[in-house]
Design a protein that fits this description.
Distance between the termini: 50 Å
Bound molecules: pyridoxal-5'-phosphate
Radius of gyration: 21 Å
Structural class: alpha/beta
Order of helices and strands: HHEHEHEHEHEHEEHHHEHEHEEHEH
Helix content: 25-40%
Number of helices: 14
Length: about 375
């Protein structure tokens, strides 16, 4: 590889190698200004006017996410939900969209509410099967197909290239929640997706101390302009300090995700043979129904997320969760510390999640400690 086109891990470690021109600092300052000086002739030649639309602290994290995703441009948001909502709010009123049945539950609920109010027409389909998507899209009417892969919390896999082909042939955009894969494992734009969304709260930041979201687009077109307008119009902006923390987290994205993947694979294999575990849901196991597609579209591992179904049902699952010491019983994912959660308790009525399921977010601790803790908790 030529010296001037470094590998993504190098770009991330050096945050693209930006240096503060004035001081030579290898870390850029946090910009706190909410307003910017006009030129004497009333122009804003430096390109920034007001802090809700413009923040210099976004430049470096947005440029880095764009480089890692291989996109045209990125926007950071106040949360993953704000990023996702900006996509849907940029569609024409009442637009038809197709979304997965298994997806991040709060976004599924939000989309359901949009459908009820008439703001969107939403069909939820099983995205494991491209046949179901093919049937659901309405050529000329469907404006957007939303997918999530691996999909939280069953870690089911959607064929990104196949979904892109179906969306495009119907005249729709393909947007993907790629939070669980991170750009380390999957680059959806190279497989035909138009928009990549991350809950940057998770792997991109990686330290459970920032709520943030991002969107990256394949082209800087008219829809991109709508996303820019949605962020400043709705005002769901990230603070400058949070943008700095996000960038700091992204510098270690590659070693964190690589280690989490290795540990998750080891944990999945060990638990698959455990007598108290009914099933392990992890795309890295050959028994997983999405394994072949995942192996094709994920590079370097299958992610740090897995779920287990505990023999004995809901009560046994909750009892096992009560006994962990190293794993922390908490929601969220993608941080350096391992988290475990009884997922159905969070999602409530109507969830597709079985009641005996525990969701595991594997951190960067020693995997043998994580396995020992789980084996003790399972009994
Ligand atoms: N997408 C996925 C897969 C998530 O796990 C989450 C949060 O858990 C979100 C989106 C929402 O992101 P945020 O909490 O940053 O709004």
């Amino acid at each position: 590889m030529a010296r001037n086109t470094p590998h993504p891990a190098t770009m991330a470690a050096q945050a693209l190698g930006w240096i503060d021109e004035g001081t030579g600092a290898v870390v850029l300052p946090v910009h706190t200004a909410t307003t910017f000086l006009r030129d004497a002739d009333n122009q804003y030649r430096r390109g920034r006017g007001y802090g809700r639309a413009d923040n210099a602290s976004y430049d470096q994290p947005e440029a880095l996410i764009t480089a890692l995703e291989g996109g045209a441009a990125s926007l950071v948001f106040a949360s993953g939900m704000a990023a996702a909502a900006a996509v849907f709010r940029s569609l024409p009123p009442g637009a038809h969209i197709v979304a997965p049945r298994v997806m991040y539950w709060a976004l599924r609920r939000w989309l359901g509410a949009q459908a009820e109010s008439g703001a969107l027409a939403v069909d939820f389909v099983d995205m494991i099967s491209l046949d179901a998507l093919r049937v659901a899209v309405k050529p000329g009417k469907t404006k957007l197909v939303w997918i999530e892969t691996p999909a939280n919390p069953l870690w089911s896999i959607t064929d990104i290239a196949g979904a892109a082909e179906i969306a495009h042939s119907a005249g729709a955009l393909l947007a993907i929640d790629s939070t669980a894969a991170s750009p380390v494992l999957t680059r959806p734009l190279s497989l035909g997706a138009d928009i990549v969304m991350h809950s940057a709260t998770k792997y991109l930041n990686g330290h459970s101390d920032v709520i943030a979201g991002s969107l990256t687009t394949a082209t800087k077109d008219e829809f991109w302009q709508r996303l820019v307008a949605a962020r400043s119009g709705d005002g769901a902006i990230l603070g400058g300090f949070e943008a700095y923390l996000l960038l700091r987290g992204m510098r270690t994205l590659y070693p964190r995700v690589e280690r989490a993947c290795r540990s998750a694979q080891k944990i999945a294999e060990r638990l698959a043979a455990h007598q108290k575990v009914a099933e392990v849901l992890y795309p890295g196991l050959p028994s997983h129904p999405g394994h072949t597609i995942a192996a094709r579209q994920m590079q370097g591992g299958f992610g740090g997320m897995l779920s287990i179904r505990v023999k004995g049902g809901e009560a046994a699952a909750i009892a096992a969760a009560a006994k962990v010491e190293i794993w922390k019983r908490a929601t969220s994912l993608g941080g350096v510390e391992s988290l475990l959660e009884h997922r159905a308790s969070i999602e409530g009525a109507g969830t597709p999640v079985p009641p005996d399921l525990l969701r595991l977010s594997v951190g960067i601790e020693d995997p043998d400690d994580l396995i020992a803790d789980l084996e003790t908790a399972l009994g």
